[in-house]
Specification:
Number of strands: 0
Number of helices: 2
Strand content: under 5%
Distance between the termini: 175 Å
Structural class: mainly alpha
Radius of gyration: 63 Å
Number of domains: 1
Length: about 160
């Protein structure tokens, strides 16, 4: 094969060189490169897993936030209803107290009015008695004796009582 320009020694040397090159590349370049690629794939998978976990946590937080908002609105509504009820109760209580006070004032005024009416009636009675006594004294003084005047005066006073 020398005629063809092929030298077996060079071919064997080249085959050995190729095998050595293949072993060196496989051991020192391919393995670390494959390890690097595997590490990168593992890191990418871990990123995806963490991303999915973060999305799930975010969704859970949104659901919790919505629940908390709904609960806060419910509590606010309950507080407003309770406040309305309390204010209505307070209003009714104040109205009842005001009515009671008005009734007390009316009763007091009626009592005062009755007292004033009685006082006025007594005063009018007294004036009528005095006037009657004066009329009897002045008008009948000359025509009646003192004894008759006393009887008439007593009869007038008796009729007034």
């Amino acid at each position: 094969m020398e005629n063809l320009g092929i030298d077996f020694k060079i071919m064997i040397a080249q085959a050995i060189n190729f095998v050595l090159f293949f072993i060196i590349v496989k051991k020192f370049i391919a393995k670390p490169f494959n390890s690097f690629l595997e590490d990168e794939h593992d890191k990418e998978r871990e990123k995806q897993r963490l991303l999915e976990s973060a999305k799930k946590i975010e969704e859970d937080l949104k659901v919790k936030e919505q629940k908390m908002k709904a609960q806060a609105q419910k509590e606010m509504k309950d507080i407003i209803e309770e406040t309305k009820k309390n204010s209505q109760d307070l209003r009714e209580t104040l109205l009842d107290e005001a009515k009671k006070e008005a009734e007390e004032i009316k009763e007091k005024m009626r009592g005062q009015l009755n007292e004033e009416k009685e006082d006025l009636y007594k005063e009018v009675k007294k004036k009528v008695a005095e006037l009657s006594f004066d009329i009897v004294n002045k008008g009948l003084k000359d025509s009646l004796d003192e004894e008759t005047q006393k009887r008439i005066t007593q009869r007038i006073l008796k009729n007034l009582n």
